Prior knowledge:
Strand 7 and strand 8 (145-156) form a beta hairpin. The protein has 244 residues and is α+β, with helices and mostly antiparallel strands. It has helices at 3-8, 61-70, 159-187, 217-226, 228-243; strands at residues 35-36, 45-55, 81-83, 94-101, 105-116, 120-126, 131-142, 145-156, 195-202.
Amino acid sequence: xxxxxETSWAKTVxxxxxxxxxxxxxxxxxxxxRVTSPIQGFGKMWQKTYRVRLPADRVSSTELIAxxxxxxxxxxxxxxxxxxxxxxxxxGEVALLNMTLPGRMKLSTGVMVLYADEESFTLMTPQxxxxxxxxxxxxxELEGETVAQAQVLMRASDPIYxxxxxxxxxxxxxxxxxxxxxxxxxxxxxxxxxDTQVVCxxxxxxxxxxxxxxxxxxxxxxxxxxxxxxxxxKRLVRRDRAVA
Length: 244
């Protein structure tokens, strides 16, 4: 492994460590969680690839990746927030996410930057995320075109997420990344069509991983939201006592 390769990988991939929390972000279901690969997931394993082509004379592959990393949250659909680390998308950094799931359920989670260089970057999910796996963003130049790609390798983290993905979650995820790549192309003044390829790599469900539901960020986020009135009452009581 070259020195460049060594600096491009996260130094540790065991547990997430959240640094400074950006304004508006929620550090729940993230700090101290283990990162998860498809091996630790429950559901069927999927590989999803999304590509959009741009004229190479408009933007090079390295320029595209630099822009994508710098402006990553801007290309996401409305209702979903990616809070970039203060140092940017760099190996080992942790980003906090607020996501909208099917049924308008809100999910507070995060991702770790597993790898990042001038040509690609990879994000890895923690326990409790809707899927266990990673997503790699890359760009390459081919026959006068710059090809921007997002590729996901994943399993639903637990049985509840697996049901959600089956009942529309997969489609929503496809729309999510198609929108992202469309917005990325639009940033460079192009309206390229997104090519989508979905392959089921393994149709087996790993029933030994059903206990992952204990870490479900969706369940914990929902309980946290429902408990908001109780937290407000407690704050008011403490304030009244302090005044008295």
